[in-house]
Amino acid sequence: KMAADTSVEILQKVLENEILQTTKVVEEHLDAEIQKLDQMDEDELECLKQRRLEALKKAQQQKQEWLSKGHGEYREIPSERDFFQEVKESKNVVCHFYRDTTFRCQIMDKHLTVLAKKHVETKFLKLNAEKSPFLCERLRIKVIPTLALVKDGKTQDYIVGFTDLGNTDDFTTETLEWRLGCADVINYSGNLMDPPFQSQKKFGTSFTKLDKKTIRGKKYDSDSDDD
């Protein structure tokens, strides 16, 4: 027992020492930063302040430019022609191809509304698949809902149904945000290696079988269970 007690004490001392060393390093780093600021003359400080103000001004101007192009809100566009115009003027675009009768499109709408406000750097749009047969054919959209993820005018990636989102109707906004981050279509600050749905409790993921819906003679797979 004596030996066990001794090893516990040694371990405790080692840990305390580690903590002290870490604290010392942090303090030394802070001291160095403070000293650097103290040694700066007024001209240097003024220069630093100006640089920061410039950066803030630039960020504000960029935000205003995005807002003037229709970023910051989730909008419906009326036609295929509008789609081409919208993607031409913005670097990052997320477009939801939806249909009124598909319940899962409403779930997608709810999350996209939140993300459009949060990620002003990206344009969030929705387009009725039934009103855009040419575009659906060109982009090979067969399942509704589908998100087309567009960068620099080119469709780079798709989110088809909810398969990439934990395969459940109850996916979180964070999960969709992570998936958009994986496609580099938004500025994502989380860890891409750690999908949010992995840390959640597993929801029931029983999916109803896909039913076929015809739109103007075209067959669409609906990712929905309502008729």
Feature tags:
227 residues; alpha/beta; five-stranded mixed sheet; three-stranded mixed sheet; 7 helices; 8 strands; Thioredoxin domain-containing protein 9; cytoskeleton
Q: Tell me the radius of gyration.
A: 26 Å
> Biggest sheet, open or closed, and with what strands and sense?
5 strands, mixed
Low-confidence stretches: 202-217
Fraction in helix: 40-55%
Pfam family, one: Thioredoxin
InterPro entries: Thioredoxin-like_sf, Thioredoxin_domain
Main location: cytoplasm
Subunit structure: Forms ternary complexes with the chaperonin TCP1 complex, spanning the cylindrical chaperonin cavity and contacting at least 2 subunits.
Structure description:
Forms ternary complexes with the chaperonin TCP1 complex, spanning the cylindrical chaperonin cavity and contacting at least 2 subunits. One of its GO terms (cellular component) is cytoplasm. Its main location: cytoplasm. The protein is of the alpha/beta class and 227 residues long. The chain is 49% helix and 18% strand. It contains 7 helices and 8 strands. A hairpin with a 2-residue loop joins β7 (211-215) and β8. The longest helix has 38 residues, at 2-39. It is flat and about 75 Å long.
